[in-house]
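Here is the promised in-class demo. Please do not try to memorize the tokens; focus on the logic of going from shape to residues.
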């Protein structure tokens, strides 16, 4: 792993969402100096979706394929 034990922190939170189902959230934090060693820096913008979402049938097919495995 490229990070030392004092350079990375993670956490998990669980709870019932607004739809009544259980959900889990991960939180990962890495020190800026550790990112710089990998050629990254903390001032870079975060990743985000730049296009439109795939059509509904695509999501349904992906869920069916994941269940069938």
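The designed amino acids, position by position:
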């Amino acid at each position: 792993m490229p990070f030392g034990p004092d350079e990375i922190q993670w956490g998990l939170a669980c709870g019932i969402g607004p739809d009544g189902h259980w959900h889990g959230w991960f939180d990962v934090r890495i020190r800026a100096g550790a990112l710089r060693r990998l050629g990254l820096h903390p001032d870079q913008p975060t990743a985000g979706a730049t296009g439109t979402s795939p059509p509904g049938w695509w999501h349904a097919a992906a869920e069916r394929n994941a269940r069938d495995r």
